[in-house]
Amino acid sequence: MKTRSAFTLTGLVMMLLSLGSTMLTTGCASSEDKAYKAQEAVYERRLELLDKYQQCLKEAGDDQAKRLVCEDYLKAVEALK
Q1: Among 16, 20, 55, 77, which residue's Cβ finds the most Cβ atoms within 10 Å?
Q2: pTM score above 0.70
């Protein structure tokens, strides 16, 4: 009887360790996925702002006052680095 209990306890401990390591690995993967998605969103936003900056410069032409307004887009891009 003691042998069976010891075996069951050992089996239970091994199962819990394996379950715990699986949960940790899955948890880390989720955190990494969230980090990658967040980084992707930042890159997409930077690209949008760069497009707006370039469009703004085209529309501003040689007007220096309008070109200065466009610099806000560039500053926003720099802030997202």
Answers
A1: 77
A2: no
Range of the domain at 19: 2-79
Packing angle, helices 64-79 and 2-60, rounded to 10: 170
Please provide the distance, in angstroms rounded to a whole number, between the alpha carbons at the two ends of the chain: 65
Helix segments in 1-81, DSSP class H: 2-60, 64-79
d(C-alpha 49, C-alpha 42), whole Å: 11
Tell me how many domains the chain contains: 1
Joined tokens for residue 24? 């940790």
Instruction: Give me the phi and psi of 68, to 5 degrees please.
Output: -65, -35
Q: Which two tokens stand for residue 21?
A: 């390591």
